[in-house]
Amino acid sequence: MRIGQSTDIHRLSPDRRLILGGVEIESDLGLVGHSDADALTHALAEAILGALALGDLGKWFPDTDPKWEGADSILILKQVAKMMDERGCRLGNADCLIMIEKPKMAPHIMKMRQNYAEALHCDIGRISVKATRGEGLGFVGRREGVQAFAVVLLEEKDV
């Protein structure tokens, strides 16, 4: 077994779309970044890279590469899934957390889990997505940005 964990932070801005877990969510603020800035998906992909001892997301998908400008982060996750498969591993489970003041994430969590299960070729029961607010505290509470966390357990496939 291999364990990986990661976090990602992105600023919020009024001139961007809010995409989390591969779901576009109606909001007055969206995330700023080189790709679609899906912080939750970035944390998950990087946690998998960490479990594989392959470094961070920037090593494989640098923000200096125009190929990834505006990219759908689910495509990045699918590339990481391919890397995981090539190294003889599969997802045991993933536990993901998004910290965002608003909007509410509850209506979108099932779709996020479905997106991840599809991208990682696993049962949805292996994917947990949760959300919490900043309760008005810190950069999350002031709606300056969002922070996402992910922990994964990878299993080696039977040889």
Primary descriptors:
159 residues; 60s Ribosomal Protein L30, Chain: A; single chain; two-stranded antiparallel ribbon; alpha+beta; five-stranded mixed sheet
Describe this structure in words.
The chain is an alpha+beta fold and 159 residues long. The chain has one domain: 60s Ribosomal Protein L30, Chain: A. Helices cover 30% and strands 31% of the residues. The chain is built from 5 helices and 7 strands; from the N terminus they run ββββαααβαβαβ. The protein has helices at 39-51, 57-60, 73-86, 109-120, 138-141; strands at 2-13, 18-20, 23-25, 30-31, 89-99, 127-132, 145-156. The chain has a 5-stranded mixed beta sheet. Strands 2-3 form a two-stranded antiparallel ribbon. α1 runs parallel beside α3 (73-86) and α3 (73-86) packs parallel to α4 (109-120). The longest helix is centred in the middle third of the chain and has 14 residues, at 73-86. The chain is globular. The two termini are 14 Å apart.
